[in-house]
Amino acid sequence: MVERPNKPKLVPLSPTTATPQPIVSFSDDNSRVTAELPSGESVTVLLYGATVISWKDAEGQEKLWLSEAAKLDGSKAVRGGIPLVFPVFGPPSPDHAQTAKLVQHGFARTSRWEFLGKSTSESAAGAASVKLDFGLSSAAEGLDPAAREAWPFKFSLIYSVTLCPGSLTTAIVATNDDDKPFDCHALFHTYLRVDDISSVSISGLDGAAYIDKLSPSDPNKTESSSSVTITGETDRVYTPTSNEITVLQGDKPIFRITRDNLTNVVVWNPWTEKAASMGDFAPKDGYKNMLVLNPGRWGLGRLLSRGMRLRGRKLLAWLGRDVCVLGVMREVIGA
Ligand SMILES: O=P(O)(O)OC[C@H]1O[C@@H](O)[C@H](O)[C@@H](O)[C@@H]1O
C-alpha cells in the first residue's frame, strides 16, 4: 500500500455524539422482553400472555404489583402486572353462546404471543421512547389449544406496549379475519402498586354508572363520590363519563390513566378473604399494596367479518357507528 503524506482523515459515518438509544433485551430462554430507556425507565413483558410483569420509573421504583407466588412459567395466568383480558371478561355467561365455552377472562392471558419487533422514537426535547409489538392470531402456534375449540373464530390481535419517560401506554388492535361476526371484550387487567390502600382514592368516577358484581340482586348503581376509596372487597364495572381517572395516595396523584376508545374501567380489590383463597396471591396482605384498574371494553364489541366490512360500508355510515374494527384501545399510565 502506498502511504500518502496528506491522506484525508476518515469521516465518521455517524456522529460521535449520537443520542443514547433504548436497549431491548431477551431473557429466560427468550420468554421475556425487557426494554430500558436511557433515562432509566424499564418495562418487562412475558411472552406468555404478553403480560407486562414489571414497569419501573427512572428511579427504579416498581409501579406494578406482582404477586410473590405468581406463576411465570406459562402454567397459569399471571397474578399481577398487566394480564390481557380477551375475548371475554369474567366468567362467560351461559346465555352468550359464542363465549360460553371459554374460561374466565379468555385465552389471551394464557397464550404465548409472538414478539413482532420494536420501534424507537425521540421527542422534540430529545427524550427517547420505545414501542414493543406482540401478535396473537387464530393460526398462531402459541394459541392456548383449548381456545381454538372453545372459540373457533379467525382473528388477529396486535398488542403494543410503549414506554416513554413517565408513562406506559398499552394498545390493542383486534381484527376479525372470519366470514362471520363475533362479539368480544378486551381489557388491560392492570395491578397498580400502591403504598397503602387505606389512603388511596380514585377521582374521575363521579356520576358514573356501574355494575356492582358483589351485589348480584341489585347490581346497577351510580357513583356518587368524587373520591372513591377502597375499604373492603370491591369488584365493580364502571362506565365513566370522563376519559381520565386519577389514583391518589393521600393528596399525591400517583397514577393518571387516560383511556382512548375504552368505555369501561373495572375496579377490583380482593381484600382479606378473597386474597386468602387465591393460591397464587402472596403475601396474603398484598391486597393492601395493590389496586386493580382494568380499562377496557365490556359490553358490545362486535367485530364484523372481512366480507361484511366491505359490503357494509354504506350501512355502517348509515348506522353512524364504526363497528368494523374494535379500534385502538389505549391506556396511558403515568402521574
Ligand atoms: O382470578 P382472576 O381470574 O385473575 O380474576 C380476578 C378478578 O378480576 C377482576 O377483574 C374481576 O372483576 C373479578 O371478578 C375477578 O375475581
UniProtKB/TrEMBL annotation:
Q: What class of enzyme is it?
A: isomerase
List keywords of the entry alphabetically. Isomerase
User: What molecular function terms (GO) are annotated for this protein?
Assistant: carbohydrate binding; glucose-6-phosphate 1-epimerase activity
GO annotation (BP), single: carbohydrate metabolic process
UniProt xrefs under Pfam families: Aldose_epim
Q: Which residues bind substrate?
A: R79, Q104, R109
Q: Which domain of life is it from?
A: Eukaryota
Catalytic activity field: alpha-D-glucose 6-phosphate = beta-D-glucose 6-phosphate
What GO cellular component is one of the record's annotations?
Answer: cytoplasm
Q: What are the EC numbers?
A: 5.1.3.15
Which SUPFAM superfamilies does this one have? Answer: Galactose mutarotase-like
Which InterPro entries does the annotation name?
Aldose_1/G6P_1-epimerase (IPR008183), G6P_1-epimerase (IPR025532), Gal_mutarotase_sf_dom (IPR011013), GH-type_carb-bd (IPR014718)
Tell me the protein family, please: Belongs to the glucose-6-phosphate 1-epimerase family.
Primary role: Catalyzes the interconversion between the alpha and beta anomers from at least three hexose 6-phosphate sugars (Glc6P, Gal6P, and Man6P).
Q: What is this protein called?
A: Glucose-6-phosphate 1-epimerase
The organism's taxonomic lineage, starting at the top:
Eukaryota, Fungi, Dikarya, Ascomycota, Pezizomycotina
